[in-house]
């Protein structure tokens, strides 16, 4: 006999077994894949799988054969990862999710055809990572993103909109020209008007402007640079760095590039301070103490009026810097308490190339070197031939002279043999015979 309870359980079991997990909603607007991800091979898959979805419980993976933009028009939440990799596809051109508000991860790996990511309503994400190795410009619009564990962009960025970003554990922007010595090309204007806190921040590349008016605290490292190596930094475009609210950098503050202005009026303490300019900079900071301070490049003047303690201070000035190393060394050697290490050196300038005529006279051409080599070989060969001829003549002379033939010379031992029957050879000239 069936009770209402048993009938209800049977109904739920039949419903669960008949439901497909490849896009059919278990709740209104909710879609789940059979496994952990939806594998998308064409825009038609997007239309068929997500037509009635607003929430995706799982990830999205773009597969080989996909071409054109990935558009998710109605999706507001994705509890998983959107992954686009060159290992699977190189035909997708952009990702557009105009209504997306929450996302697990966005991972884009070296897809040359990708040019744009637009998620204007996205407010929360765990990780956003885009590595673009192609020499083509890309743009990012995440204007509503407030918090993320990690935000990283690597490529020829023409624009990045992170206007609402408040905090991130790690923020990395490797922008245009980060691996080039030339100063020409696309420059990035970077504005983070609400950004206040991070564990580490690294901004690298050809940056025309950086604005972070509310940044107050960096747990570990804050780094600005124009190239992977400071010596490769061009002198353009010039940039001025202003961090009016920054009060704390736990481990390292590094600002090196075509700096012409630097203002950090509230920072008093950090372990390592690195300041370098390839354009010409006067440094004036209210720093009270630091473990190490390193200056590099075209630094014309250094003013640290509030400094009370530093263990190591150094300067590597460019050849055109107005800074005098003798004055620098005297000042910081006499500083109290005395630093354990004070260094100053100037890099040599790049010598001017000689005119073409001078180069021609100083360095012989390949043809001349070849001719000289052949001539030297001929002379050596002739000398060896003449030496061999002289040796032969001397041997012939000694053999033909008074005292016998050459065999007597070659077999002479200079003593009598005990055997009286043994043949006795006359001595070679010019010696006389031994007297018994």
Automatic annotation (TrEMBL):
Please note every region of biased composition (Pro residues).
424-436
Q: Which domain of life is it from?
A: Eukaryota
Give the range the annotation lists for the signal sequence: 1-18
In which residue ranges is the amino acid composition biased (Acidic residues)? Answer: 393-403
| UniProtKB keywords | Signal
Q: Where is this region: Disordered?
A: 392-436
Query: Know the name of this protein?
Result: Uncharacterized protein
- Taxonomic source organism: Aspergillus cavernicola
